[in-house]
Fold each of these.
Amino acid sequence: MPLKLAVLGSGKGSNFVAIQKAILSGILAGKAQVVLVASDHADAGILDRAREFGLPWEALPQSAFKTKLEPEIEAGLASSIRRAGADLVVLAGYMRVLKAPLLEAFPERIVNIHPSLLPAFKGLEAWKQALAAGVPETGCTVHWVNVDLDGGDVLGRERVPILPGDTPETLHARIHEAEHRLYPAVIARLAVELGKV
Ligand code: GRF
């Protein structure tokens, strides 16, 4: 039985696309299945991509906050994820901090990808933080999600060199390429570890 994924995102959805492509013809074939794609922005690209793949999708009601959801909206999202039968919640560019309704509904079952080698450069625009710090390399990290922002146990990391002349855009693009390899690989491992394949 494949691992059933609920994917949450606020933006373009390139990580979601990488995961879905790996399901259709890559390392996640037979191992995972996307049962819901949800976004806090009705016009987010990730929902367009979900519709193109013919997958179930949901746009959340508009929130009065920017960085979190009202508890009742988040509880509604948790209900949708349960109804969809998801085993694992996959945050793919989801830009709001998770609160009790989701964290308590899916303990140890929510993963996130962050564009740095955690614990370095937590928070927003981590690639810019890395450039400003002058470090020779950065990368991306997949980790469990808990109440500590970008602080849950690490599931996998990929290193990305910082090259002479890198701009925030070129560096972020190189990190994205690494993310698109790392996220499907970690989910494939979790499908085995969680006993689904
Ligand atoms: C990625 O850089 C990810 O690390 C961060 O948000 C971005 C999402 O990009 N959490 P996309 O929407 O998957 O293209």
Amino acid sequence: MLTDTFGRTHNNLRISVTDRCNLRCTYCMAEEVVFLDRADLLTFEEIAHFVRVAVPLGIDKLRLTGGEPLLRRDLPRLTAMLAEIPNLEDIGLTTNGLLLANQAQALFDAGLRRINVSLDTLDPGRFRAISRRDGLERVLDGIAAAKAAGFHPIKINAVVIRGTNEQDVVPLARFARENDLEMRFIEYMPIGAEAWERSKVYFAHEILEQIEQRIAPLVPADDYDPRAPAMDFQYVEGRGRVGIIASVSRPFCASCNRLRLTCDGKLRNCLFALDEVDLKPLLRERHDDAQLAETIRRNVRDKWEGHEINTARFVKPPRTMHAIGG
Ligand code: SAM
Ligand code: SF4
């Protein structure tokens, strides 16, 4: 088991497959970015090798992310390679949806079952302002294709920023409810390229208030898990669920079970970690699985108590979100 000194066990791995992106969301990355050389990215074989070593240590759940993961050529091939690994119970994907219409079926056929699509607004002008690109229609087509391919549930992730898109909370929640999608709102975190201000965080309780006042009352979902990152709610009447990831107002560090592998092979034990361990030499040159396993164990053991967003001690990691893997 991958246990740290605070007693937290880790079974959940996020794998970034690229730092490239076809959007430039202001809260995530800068407009101009120098991307990694392709030769620096882990190959699919190296990623699958890492997972084969990590699963016997206790990893049974993973999520592919980026950057925009669907920009990595032939992602269904990686998905199929991972789906074959015994004792890996769950493979998910987080995408901005722009390229999903063409890839949803192939991903489903390769064994992917859980998909999260990021969408912060249904307004084309605000979509452009937030992501610095056009593409709302393509995202909506991608969601429709994912439904048609058989993905269920499909989660929609929206970051809510005060002064930018708090007016989108209700339309997004309605859109999700009407289309049998699960809506998840995320508090704005200091992990992007732009200067973060606490005053721009639109808090979980404000999101809930909007939905309850303008759509319908919510209650904790039947499967509500107080230790999970998302606080899950369901409407009192009728169908529909809403999740809120309140990383700022209700940090879930005490029950964190996540590890991250960046696209260039760095192991990170926290989204906000300031240190990372370079696994590429072990995966690419030395092929020493015992040492790789020990390095993963040590990285988990060394994990800190939690991020310090809410203190003056907080230091933003040198990598921004697109290069870590959200
Ligand atoms: N490109 C894909 C996408 O957008 O879904 C996957 C990578 S993206 C970094 C993963 C998630 O991180 C997205 O849902 C995005 O909204 C979220 N994210 C990025 N920057 C954030 C921030 N500063 N605060 C909160 N969430 C953030
Ligand atoms: Fe790209 Fe996702 Fe970051 Fe937006 S949130 S810039 S889509 S990686």
Amino acid sequence: MKLLEDMILQKGKIINEDVLKVDNFINHQVDSKLMKEIGVEFSNYFKKDKITKIFTIESSGIAPAVMTSYELNVPMVILKKQTSAILNDDIYQVNYKSFTKNTTYNLTISKDYISQDDSILIIDDFLANGEAAKASIKLIENVGAKVVGIGIVIEKTFQPGRKILDELGYNVYSLARIKSLKNNKIEFIN
Ligand code: 5GP
């Protein structure tokens, strides 16, 4: 997506060879016009898939996920990150390790917002090792619901997440694919 790539080049900050900071337009300050375009792009790509809900993990995926849910006219559900396991009959939980925070979370959803009839599109801001996506998939499939696709705003193709999800057979659609952050330079795959 040209608009997104241009913004990454102009405003993205390389923290090191593995991490890109996009606080100026996605993760801290949010560019709502860009989010609208992202919503349109994901919706055009996934609209044939009869999606019933959009899932994202708090908090950075919320902006692109809500715009996609608006375009597809289905609800968006935020998976909560709890720092401890909760014993409660009203929720489902799955454990996962965060890429940026190096912390383990319990991804949590109320039973009210998922059923086995759901066909779910997962949206997230970044794909790195695939841990967030894998935990979301597990949470959804444990209930018997279906993952119809995974929409990623920025994929780092030099980390293992994409390969893992491809091998598991999921339809991953990324709007910007970064092949390298080396030498203080952002390089995309075309
Ligand atoms: P994964 O679970 O695929 O290893 O990592 C994905 C999650 O880690 C995303 O939800 C995102 O919040 C965070 N993340 C991974 N890589 C980056 C990065 O380069 N920059 C930022 N800002 N977040 C990242």
